[in-house]
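Hi both,

Apologies for the delay on this - the queue was longer than expected. I finally got the magnesium ion-bound model through. Below you'll find the protein sequence and the ligand SMILES exactly as submitted, and right after that the structure tokens for the full complex including the ligand.
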Amino acid sequence: MLINVIEIFKSKIKLLEPFKISLGILDYAENVIVRITTDNGLVGIGECSPFRTINGESMDTGFIVAQYLGNVLIGENPLAIEECVTMMNKVIYGNTSIKSAFDMALYDIASQYANLPLYKFLGGNNSTQIITDYTISIDRPEKMADDAIKIRDKGFKIIKVKLGGTRGDDIERIKRIRTQIGYDIPLRIDANQGWDCRTAVEVLKDLEPYKIQHCEEPIPRWDFMNLPFVKKNSPIPIMADESCCDHHDAARLIGLDACHRFNIKLGKSSGIFNALKNY
Ligand SMILES: [Mg+2]
């Protein structure tokens, strides 16, 4: 089986509400879709949602880089996923988001060829129920508290709150949200690199009474050498997100004892193949 045709599409969809984090605002979901067709008629589809300030990629750069990646994959065996991933990495460094769309399309083909749903193809047994959260954008504390009520009323069981502003504002945000929704719904927070090391420890200590599950990426991703200090002094577990793109980053953070948890995203790891890797 060989890859016959690769098609790339831009997909721009206006969000109902702007998505605001400490790193910037998104008004549109600007994604890239990859469709790979094989010579025996299988079609695999992958999609990525590059975030400029996180991936260093946009829909437009992804569309261009996808042409480079597509050129080397044409005529290759789609089931040789490791080889395809290696070839993509030889074409260009980084660009993990658009690479993940190709990786996803290849896994789509591989699992169809094996006549298995993807979870079975990956060795899963579908026995774990995963409960997702809904994110509150960073905003005025009153607006965020109102959003929390709306999200709860829609039936979401966990809420994630974007922080990463000033210490006073961030405490006020969580205080208002807890006042509105009580303590039954688990809250997790994400500073998206918005605090410096000292502020992070202060805010996390201040937030201890508000029953927070964990805090994502409290300090800048480049400052990971200071993350162990934050972890050691925080009463709230630390989850690495932007500082943990792939298995190499994960190994480094474990070696430093820098965090309790990882946020694994296909757009950071270049796809499923790397996301599954361990040391
Ligand atoms: Mg995050």
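Main takeaway for now: The chain has a mean pLDDT of 97.

I'll put the files on the shared drive as well.

H.
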